[in-house]
């Protein structure tokens, strides 16, 4: 960029403070192909039906714990092994003294499920396949319903019809809590999409491994609280599985603040945007960077007519100030409220900023200009992109529906195509790096669905990154803590209230840094 950099008055921010080692990258999430291999290997070393017996016992045990006052249980079982798990649970719950009724979609085909049905009948349960799914008339709110219609064997390309659809209709209308076996029926394990429709469970017990689809797209709305049972079968070593981004995966990864810290040691964040009429976005990003703890925050207005920042700790800058030494040590968050004007500044930022995060209008400019995309790929240092699904679709040249249909595939493709770290925002944000690392965020809730929360996220990640974290750590921690702040806020008030962007920044400041 052109003329007149401000002379630095403190030493440059270090590139990296001591690396913050957390216990792990997070729990692995397994795709269905891996789960099938895992199941086959585990079954080889066990007596017949042992895995199903363990699965059914785990469902029964958890059902008792979650619904301790239940007096009766209604089990809806499909004709596959998911239904077999439900039949085992039904038998065990009856043996524990509960009144159990079973609805079975059709005569089971697999050996395991036929065994489970025979055992259930031998124990005195009246199980006749087919017929209308009629819940027990006196089923109450304390009682338990077990959804064992469909699991990993769901055919994703057809919406459930016939008896299974009728059973799903019945599940929609029940007062009692629904415990889903392995997956809420109809939810696609690998993507979190629905095969037309899916059961809304209060709880899900995921068997063997955790599935990515429980955490992203429609997964969070359908799975309820997620429980895990590995059935005592050792997990396969899969290096490339996505990881669950949760509190333990982020523990101990916050930037260090040594006693002798000063504003020059905590990094320089430049928030670049602020086209006319859009200055609020840049102020939100800058304020979030300040809350994250970055040492000096510069708010760059691309249009001099745009309102200057109102927070007294933010330095109002022209774009010309971001060049030379200032640019060489800057962490730049570009695009929040940038309008079309941001495009002209991107070549210099892509070339000169050692840490660069592109959001909103910067992403739109990138999608529209192949030369920018090429320049980004050629960068030696990390860049971070923070698209929502529509921006991701523009970057990939596809529809928003295609992005949402397989969010993991979309984010991986973006990371490869642009040579950048990417977070695809939305319910269960997904993260990917060009080297194949991948994560799904477990925090956050619908309170975040309001204007400006994305600008806050961009500035918050930038503020963490400016303090010396490496790019992947800053991205992971930033995304998780952004959602965790909303979770803490909602825990105090209950669901349903939107969280405005300024309050979100306060909630981020209040979040304990452990
Ligand atoms: N794979 C594992 O990890 C283990 C599997 N077990 C259970 O077995 C399940 C997988 O069993 P299966 O492979 O038999 O599959 P499922 O029982 O999940 O589904 C197969 C059944 O669903 C029907 N179906 C599939 N798609 C449908 C659609 N779109 N609409 C209506 N009906 C549809 C099929 O006709 C078949 O009857 C797991 O989810 C789990 O509950 C456990 O027993 C033990 C370990
Ligand atoms: K199920």
Automatic annotation (TrEMBL):
Name the residues that bind K(+).
82, 147, 185
What cofactor(s) does the depicted protein rely on? Mg(2+); K(+)
Q: Taking every annotated instance into account, which residue ranges of this chain make up the domain YjeF C-terminal?
A: 246-514
Q: Where does the YjeF N-terminal domain start and stop, copy by copy?
A: 35-239
Q: Which residues bind AMP?
A: 425-429, 454
Q: Please, one GO biological process term?
A: nicotinamide nucleotide metabolic process
Q: How are cofactors bound according to the entry's free-text note?
A: Binds 1 potassium ion per subunit.
The residues the record assigns to binding (6S)-NADPHX are: 81-85, 182, 281, 337, 388, 455
Annotated GO molecular function terms are: ADP-dependent NAD(P)H-hydrate dehydratase activity; ATP binding; metal ion binding; NAD(P)HX epimerase activity
EC number(s) on file:
4.2.1.136, 5.1.99.6
Biased composition, class Low complexity, residue ranges: 1-18
The record's section on SUPFAM superfamilies has: Ribokinase-like, YjeF N-terminal domain-like
Q: Which reaction does it catalyse?
A: (6R)-NADHX = (6S)-NADHX; (6R)-NADPHX = (6S)-NADPHX; (6S)-NADPHX + ADP = AMP + phosphate + NADPH + H(+); (6S)-NADHX + ADP = AMP + phosphate + NADH + H(+)
Q: What residue ranges carry the coiled-coil annotation? A: none
Region Disordered: start-end pairs:
1-28
Entry keywords, A to Z: ATP-binding, Isomerase, Lyase, Metal-binding, Multifunctional enzyme, NAD, NADP, Nucleotide-binding, Potassium
Protein task: Bifunctional enzyme that catalyzes the epimerization of the S- and R-forms of NAD(P)HX and the dehydration of the S-form of NAD(P)HX at the expense of ADP, which is converted to AMP. This allows the repair of both epimers of NAD(P)HX, a damaged form of NAD(P)H that is a result of enzymatic or heat-dependent hydration.
Similarity comment text for this entry:
In the C-terminal section; belongs to the NnrD/CARKD family.
**Subunit structure comment from the entry:** Homotetramer.
Show the HAMAP family listed in the entry. Answer: NADHX_dehydratase, NADHX_epimerase
Protein name in the entry: Bifunctional NAD(P)H-hydrate repair enzyme
Annotated gene: nnrD
């Amino acid at each position: 960029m052109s003329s007149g950099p401000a002379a630095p008055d403190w030493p440059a921010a270090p590139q990296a403070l001591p690396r913050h080692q957390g216990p792990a990258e997070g729990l692995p999430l397994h795709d269905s192909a891996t789960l099938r291999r895992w199941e086959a290997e585990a079954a080889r070393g066990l007596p017949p039906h042992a895995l199903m017996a363990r699965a059914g016992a785990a469902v029964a045990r958890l059902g008792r714990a979650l619904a301790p006052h239940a007096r009766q249980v209604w089990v809806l079982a499909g004709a596959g092994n998911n239904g077999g798990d439900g039949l085992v649970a039904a038998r065990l719950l009856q043996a524990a003294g509960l009144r159990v009724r079973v609805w079975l979609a059709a005569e089971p085909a697999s050996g395991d499920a036929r065994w489970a049905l025979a055992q259930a009948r031998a124990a005195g349960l009246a199980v006749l396949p087919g017929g209308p799914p009629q819940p027990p008339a006196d089923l109450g709110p304390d009682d338990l319903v077990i959804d064992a219609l469909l699991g990993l064997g769901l055919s994703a390309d057809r919406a459930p019809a016939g008896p299974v659809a009728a059973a799903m209709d019945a599940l929609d209308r029940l007062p009692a809590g629904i415990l889903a076996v392995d997956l809420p029926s109809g939810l696609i394990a690998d993507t979190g999409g629905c095969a037309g429709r899916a059961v809304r469970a209060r709880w899900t017990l995921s068997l063997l491994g955790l599935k990515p689809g429980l955490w992203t797209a429609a997964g969070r709305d359908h799975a309820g609280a997620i429980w895990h049972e590995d059935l005592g079968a050792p997990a396969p070593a899969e290096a490339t599985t996505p990881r669950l981004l949760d509190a333990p995966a982020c523990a101990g990864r916050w930037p260090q603040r040594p006693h002798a810290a000063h504003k020059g040691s905590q990094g320089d964040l430049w928030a670049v945007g602020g086209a006319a009429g859009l200055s609020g976005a840049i102020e939100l990003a800058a304020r979030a960077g300040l809350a994250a703890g970055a040492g000096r925050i510069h708010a760059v207005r691309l249009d001099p007519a745009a309102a200057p920042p109102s927070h007294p700790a933010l330095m109002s800058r022209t774009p010309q100030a971001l060049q030379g030494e200032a640019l060489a040590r800057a962490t730049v968050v570009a695009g929040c409220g940038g309008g079309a004007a941001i495009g002209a500044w991107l070549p210099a930022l892509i070339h000169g900023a050692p840490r660069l995060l592109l959001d909103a209008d910067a992403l739109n400019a990138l999608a529209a200009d192949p030369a920018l995309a090429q320049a980004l790929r050629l960068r030696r240092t990390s860049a971070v992109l923070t698209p929502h699904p529509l921006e991701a679709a523009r970057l990939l040249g596809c529809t928003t529906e295609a992005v949402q249909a397989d969010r993991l595939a979309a984010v991986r493709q973006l990371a490869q195509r642009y040579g950048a770290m990417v977070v695809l925002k939305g319910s269960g944000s997904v993260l990917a790096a060009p080297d194949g690392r991948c994560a799904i965020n477990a925090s956050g809730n619908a309170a975040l669905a309001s204007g400006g929360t994305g600008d806050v996220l961009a500035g918050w990640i930038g503020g963490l990154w400016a303090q010396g974290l490496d790019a992947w750590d800053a991205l992971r921690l930033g995304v998780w803590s952004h959602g965790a702040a909303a979770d803490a806020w909602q825990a105090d008030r209950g669901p349903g209230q939107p969280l405005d962007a300024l309050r979100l920044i306060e909630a981020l400041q209040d979040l304990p840094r452990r």
